[in-house]
Design a protein that fits this description.
The complex is a heterotrimer of chains A (267), B (279) and C (352). With 267 residues, chain A is mostly helical. Chain A has helices at residues 2-27, 32-37, 47-55, 57-88, 94-105, 109-123, 129-153, 157-165, 170-199, 202-206, 214-219, 221-224, 232-253, 257-262. Chain A is globular. The model of chain A is unreliable at 222-228 and 263-267 (pLDDT under 50). Chain B is mainly alpha-helical and 279 residues long. Chain B has a domain at 52-102 and 141-271: MetI-like (MetI-like fold). Chain B has helices spanning 4-37, 43-49, 52-82, 89-97, 104-115, 120-127, 143-172, 175-183, 188-215, 220-226, 233-243, 247-271. In chain B, helix 7 (143-172) crosses helix 9 and helix 9 (188-215) packs antiparallel against helix 12. With 352 residues, chain C is of the alpha+beta class. Helices cover 24% and strands 34% of the residues of chain C. Chain C has helices at 42-50, 92-102, 107-120, 136-149, 166-183, 194-200, 218-223, 228-233; strands at 4-13, 16-26, 31-35, 57-62, 65-66, 77-80, 154-158, 186-191, 203-208, 211-216, 239-246, 249-251, 256-258, 270-275, 280-281, 289-300, 305-311, 314-320, 328-333, 338-342. Chain C has a six-stranded mixed beta sheet, sandwiched between helices. In chain C, helix 2 (92-102) packs across helix 3 (107-120), helix 2 runs parallel beside helix 4 and helix 3 (107-120) crosses helix 4. The chains are: A mainly alpha (267), B mainly alpha (279), C alpha+beta (352). At the A-B interface, helix 1, helix 2, helix 4, helix 5 and helix 6 of A face helix 1, helix 4, helix 5, helix 6 and helix 7 of B. The structure holds adenosine-5'-diphosphate (ADP) and magnesium ion.
């Protein structure tokens, strides 16, 4: 009896998630006439992807990857030390610091983006990849710090102390014990920073006009089009390009999601 | 290793992050205030007296007040479900949280594929002869249905965040508590009501806060599914900045988001203060 | 091997005083056991000696050299952690070898030392395994091997056997004792288990609430406990009876324990009198005091019996190999096996 219910609910969940995604991906390859008439397309084509490349979506894709990588680099360099400190040391102000970081996490991006756009125009960072990466770093930094603190915090203390007792320096303990043990979690943190950047829209739109990242480019009028609208399957091609890498990353990150979201309790 | 330097190590490690965040947050906040408040006429005054304000308030409230309760309920039941051990659990769990990796725009387009006049649902129903003309979800005349589409998209896309937080809380509950409840003959509902919910209250609180504050920032599904027919706080910011090229008014709307964020955050913390012992 | 001295060592954590003005002296080559209930500060003392913790006040000396501020790695200690702290991302071989590599020993020497330590602990066949492939007992051996491979001046062990099951614990205990005898490393061993302490120790320090209550050989702490706490903590749980000192001995209501030379100033003092169950006999002994009682309950422990006896309203426990005949019994106690403590200060009163 219980097994039947588990089976039914599992099937519902699987359908709820996979049907929309699969159908979108399928539609992005559907022949146009076919798409408007049949539930399951019979003829398939790559023309939307090809056309997209001509419209500059390929470049937007490259920009998205570059911004994502820049975001990883910046947020790791800046955020990992803080994550280590919070996960490893007990110091005055640690709790208020955590609370402040939590607060940064929920600051509306719109508030940050508009003034920064004005500033970036003045200093020449507007519409540049660095400019977007800078704000994406600001957005992902709270996540990086809190996740890293939980990753470092879960490296048992006595493993490090054993290192000190047997004569290692602080740096040696870090390199030989702490980092190898924390590595999988740190990798997940990096991927998560990338995902945040890859998926971020508001700041990307506001801080750029021509050099847009993928989701921002997809949102521009001539793609989404309120006037000379492109046929639907184009949109699905864009969706497929955005969704596929994200779903693959998720496969790796998923074990760490509880640390990223759950452990950040406001208590 | 007692050296004077050692005491300062954590502060030195934390400093770059704090400085970075402080700059990227405090500078913009400060600047948002000046952009939003000063000018002739003051953009803030313009916004507060604009005819759009009522409409924006209505839709913002409507979306948040329907989406979030639904997500909490779904997340609680999903958490209960995933406490079961069964074959294929890993896969189902991954699928359930997978939308977390999908951005707003993509999620909106995915549901557009499902619901548009030539989308999955309509084609399925027409081809099987259930209906003869498509059901329209999008367009000015169908705002109710558009709102339903936005609701579905948001529930589909953002429930995983709520789920992960609540599930984390449920995993913390010691098996002993539930087994004790079994011994004393509590049924599923009673266990939920008297044991599980009180124990996960702090997690529900966290989920509520995080989810509400993020919901205030959603633009993708609204722009894509409703165009300009449905307006919320966040879409106004993008609209005024990107399409009307007016940073002042955009800032005023952004400032409103900030104020509502603070207000709701404070309200939740006050209302849902964990009762003594329920930690 | 070194001699270790602690001089007035205290450690506070916020408002908690974990270690309270402890002075100890551990002789070179000795196996010294810190014994006390959980939370009494044993681990903290060990960590202070290891250099993982800095005392709030007081000094630590190795062979007379002040090491209080010396970094842990420079002290030449080997440590076995309660959780073993075997690094999970390295094979057993590398776990033992890493501290030696840090010391930049030549490769051949490292290999020789790893193998000899492994041989001593009988884990040669485990060297290529990862920790997750080991049982608790095997991990414990790896932790010990790692600690002795560095040829430490001091070996520190924090409840190394508490995570093992009972049978394994007895074996491992004997092994540690043998190893320590062989290597003659000054060893400080922490445990809350008095049986373990007595089996291992050259000398024991009994601790309570951050303080050292008594330091001595097993015989000393067993036969001459300096206060009520030590008397209670060591050995099977003692019978306590209230009494008063008189000029002829100690009056415990239902009997008088005779002492010949009672100093005048003690007469009239209220005392707690402790008698171990194993010091209460059912057959007559030379110079014994006789008590009459009624058997209430007999616990059969297979090799011996715990007999609960009502002596004029006071319940006493006796541990004996004899099965009592009939309800009414006579008990015999020797005055030299009676421990007398001041009721107020709880300190031992020396009386003969
Ligand atoms: N890092 C610490 N922070 C705060 N209190 C501590 C810390 N380490 C130990 N204590 C406290 O000091 C006391 C002694 O602890 P410990 O030395 O671990 O005792 P034991 O090893 O004898 O069980 C306990 O009350 C413990 O709670
Ligand atoms: Mg301890």
């Amino acid at each position: 009896m219980r097994r039947v219910w588990v089976f039914i609910i599992s099937m519902l969940i699987i359908a709820w998630i996979t049907v929309p995604i699969t159908y979108t991906i399928l539609s992005s390859f559907a022949d146009l006439v076919d798409y408007y008439e049949n539930v399951l397309p019979r003829r398939y084509t790559l023309r939307y992807y090809e056309e997209y490349l001509r419209l500059g979506v390929g470049e937007a894709l490259v920009r998205s990857v570059l911004v994502g990588i820049l975001t990883i680099i910046l947020s790791m360099i800046i955020g990992l030390p803080a994550g280590y400190a919070i996960g490893r040391y007990v110091f005055r102000g640690r709790d208020s610091l955590k609370l402040a970081i939590l607060f940064f996490k929920v600051i509306p991006i719109a508030i940050m983006a508009v003034p920064l756009a004005v500033l970036f125009i003045r200093v020449g960072l507007y519409d540049t990849l660095i400019g977007i990466a800078l704000i994406h770093t600001a957005i992902s930094l709270p996540f990086v710090v809190l996740t890293a603190s939980s990753v470092f915090g879960s490296v048992p203390r006595d493993l490090e102390e054993a290192g000190y007792v047997f004569g290692m320096s602080g740096l040696q303990v870090m390199l030989r014990i702490t980092l190898p043990l924390a590595a999988p979690g740190i990798a997940a943190t990096a991927l998560f920073a990338f995902l945040i950047s890859w998926n971020e829209i508001v700041a990307a739109i506001i801080l750029s006009s021509f050099n847009r990242t993928l989701p921002a480019a997809v949102m521009t009028p001539y793609v989404m089009g309120t006037g000379g609208e492109l046929p639907d399957p184009y949109k699905f091609a864009a969706t497929t390009i955005m969704v596929t890498p994200a779903l693959i990353f998720m496969l790796y990150i998923r074990r760490y999601l509880i640390a990223m979201w759950g452990a950040a309790g406001v208590r | 290793m007692p050296s004077p330097l050692r005491k300062h190590i954590p502060y030195i490690l934390v400093a770059p992050s704090l400085a970075y965040l402080a700059f990227f947050i405090s500078y913009p906040i400060f600047y948002t205030f000046s952009l939003a408040l000063f000018g002739n006429p003051s953009p803030m005054v313009e916004v507060m007296t604009s005819p759009r304000l009522g409409e924006v308030a209505l839709y913002t409230t409507l979306i948040i007040a329907t989406v979030i309760p639904a997500q909490i309920v779904i997340a609680i039941f999903a958490s209960l479900f995933f406490l079961n051990r069964f074959r294929g659990r890993e896969l189902v769990l991954y699928l359930f949280i997978a939308p977390l990796a999908i951005n707003e725009v993509a999620a909106a387009l995915i549901w557009y594929t499902m619901l548009s006049s030539s989308g999955f649902l309509n084609k399925l129903l027409i081809n099987t002869g259930v209906i003869s003309a498509p059901i329209y979800f999008f367009g000015y005349e169908f705002i109710d249905r558009t709102l339903l589409a936005i609701f579905l998209t948001e529930v589909w896309r953002a429930t995983p965040i709520v789920f992960i937080i609540i599930y984390a809380g449920m995993q913390m509950i010691s098996r002993d508590y539930l087994e004790a409840a079994d011994v004393f003959g509590l049924n599923l509902w009673q266990k939920l009501r008297y044991i599980i919910l009180p124990l996960i209250k702090p997690y529900i609180q966290t989920a509520l806060i995080i989810r509400t504050l993020f919901a205030l920032q959603v633009v993708g599904p609204i722009f894509i599914l409703a165009g300009e027919y449905v307006r919320v706080l966040a879409t106004e910011v993008v609209y005024w900045y990107s399409m009307r090229l007016n940073p002042g008014v955009a800032s005023a709307w952004a400032l409103l988001i900030g104020l509502v964020t603070l207000l709701l955050g404070g309200l939740y913390i006050k209302l849902l203060r964990p009762s003594a012992g329920a930690t | 091997m070194v001699k270790i001295d602690l001089e007035g060592v205290s450690k506070r954590f916020g408002s908690v005083i974990a270690v309270d003005n402890v002075s100890l002296s551990v002789s070179s080559g000795e196996l010294f056991v810190l014994l006390g209930p959980s939370g009494c500060g044993k681990t903290t003392i060990l960590r202070i000696i290891a250099g993982l913790e800095t005392p709030t006040s007081g000094r630590v000396y190795f062979d007379g050299v002040d090491v209080t501020d010396m970094p842990s790695g420079k002290r030449g200690v080997g440590m076995v952690f309660q959780s073993y702290a075997v690094w999970p991302h390295m094979k057993v071989y590398d776990n033992i070898a890493l501290p030696l590599r840090i010391k930049k020993l030549p490769q051949s020497e490292i290999d020789a030392r790893v193998r000899s330590a492994a041989r001593m602990l009988n884990i040669e066949n485990l060297l290529e395994r990862y920790p997750f492939q080991l049982s608790g007992g095997e991990k414990q051996r790896v932790a010990v091997a790692r600690a002795i491979a560095v040829e430490p001046r001091v070996l520190l062990m924090d409840e190394p056997l508490s995570n093992l099951d009972a049978l394994l614990r007895v074996q491992a205990r004997a092994e540690i004792k043998r190893l320590q005898r062989e290597l003659k490393i000054t060893t400080i061993y922490v445990t809350h288990d008095q049986v373990e302490a007595m089996a291992l120790a050259d000398r024991i320090a009994v601790m309570n609430k951050g303080r050292v209550m008594q330091v001595g050989t097993v015989d000393e702490v067993y036969n001459k406990p300096l206060n009520r706490f030590v008397a209670h903590f060591i050995g099977s749980s003692m019978n306590f009876v209230e009494g008063t000192i008189t000029d002829r001995g100690v009056d415990i209501g239902f009997a008088l324990i005779p002492y010949s030379s009672v100093p005048d100033e003690l007469v009239g003092k209220k005392v707690s009198v402790g008698i171990r169950p194993e010091d209460i006999y059912l057959e007559p002994i030379q110079g014994g005091v006789v008590l009459k009682g009624r058997v209430v309950l007999i616990e059969n422990l297979a090799s011996e019996y715990i007999i609960h006896i009502d002596v004029s309203g006071t319940l006493l426990r006796a541990k004996t190999k004899l099965y009592p005949q009939g309800e009414e019994v006579r008990l015999y106690i020797h005055p030299s096996k009676v421990h007398v403590f001041d009721t107020i200060t709880e300190n031992r009163i020396h009386i003969a």
